[in-house]
């Protein structure tokens, strides 16, 4: 992939999702020195339409040799440097579906472009200086955002809210390095270096890095979401709970035990956090082979979940079956959901002798849509206890950025240790340069080809 990125050839790709009979518009994007020539070869604009930058032309796409009509379309022209990549860019806005955009893309390739690699348009924007790496990663996060909060956090990265403090920290490190190197080169002409001032400055930088590192868990939560498994005995109301929570009829609800034979999934958003809810088959011993497979899948879903909702029937109380399931899931973060409280006199649950170490308990009447708000509050409390803030934070770092920040912090700690050991000034600069390099890797001021490959390979083709 790096060899392709290093070339200056014009690239082309479909920039919109291709869904049979569902997309109304499909876009083919072309970027590079041949983009305008390709557009003029394929696109015929009737009348006296002006071919100039940032205009939209109406016309027809035709095969350059046979003149066969391929599509009626719009053409968007963006000349360098006023484009996403800072190269000449054209976009063919075709009819949606599969055939039109595929045929237009093929004509672009036959006219001299090559197929773009994943993320290559954004990579060219980075290489041209239009974006730094944090902004590029913000674009990927925005495309993949699964909640409004995740989208806002991605936009913050795209707007440079992460890059700015990183650059400031790196500039502060460079200032310290300049002070030290000046003493090395001009020791006789300058006053002695104040160790306490240097240590204080390094501590301040390390403290700011620590604050940024504290956003990592929140960032991961917003990007990957929270996987929640609803488990329990058959007929305790797990499917009703899913339906009430998702405000849909995703799961079949009957009075017959064992109705749910497989894991049913629903995507929700709780407090800005994407939540994947899994309604599992009732866990019990059974001779039914199909149900037995469902029970085994339920156990696997529970063991892989970030949070388990152990659901029991308030009218039945804590049973031996509930105890057996609890023993299987007690190692996971857990909420005890006491369901069907509407079937209990005065709405209070029967005396339950559930384990005393269950700290989070919610009472629901899922069939009556009661208790869902309390359930969401309890989930967010567990998230908070995990020191992950669900909202009120406008940026969050990813794993790559966290690794670089951690390395920068370690390097700064080594500088402090070097000063404490009263080693020569030359030794101070070694780890300080390491911190500067690590911070530069975050924004792309210091970056290798392998890092670029890793970052942009997770982009979709066309972006």
Descriptive keywords:
metal ion binding; 13 strands; Gyrase A, domain 2; seven-stranded mixed β-sheet; 3 domains; 463 residues; alpha/beta; potassium; tRNA processing; flat; GTP-binding; Rossmann fold; Four Helix Bundle (Hemerythrin (Met), subunit A)
Descriptive notes:
- 44% of the residues lie in helices and 16% in strands.
- The protein starts with a helix and ends in a 7-residue tail after the last helix.
- It has 3 domains: 11-130, Gyrase A, domain 2, CATH 3.30.1360; 139-207 and 398-443, Four Helix Bundle (Hemerythrin (Met), subunit A); 225-383, P-loop containing nucleotide triphosphate hydrolases (Rossmann fold, 3-Layer(aba) Sandwich).
- It has a 7-stranded mixed beta sheet with strand order 3-4-5-6-2-1-7.
- Helix 12 links the parallel strand 11 and strand 12 (334-339).
- The longest helix has 23 residues, at 163-185.
- The protein is built from 16 helices and 13 strands.
- The model is unreliable at 250-262 and 387-392 (pLDDT under 50).
- Helix 5 packs antiparallel against helix 6, helix 7 (163-185) packs antiparallel against helix 8 and helix 7 packs antiparallel against helix 15 (425-443).
- The chain is of the alpha/beta class.
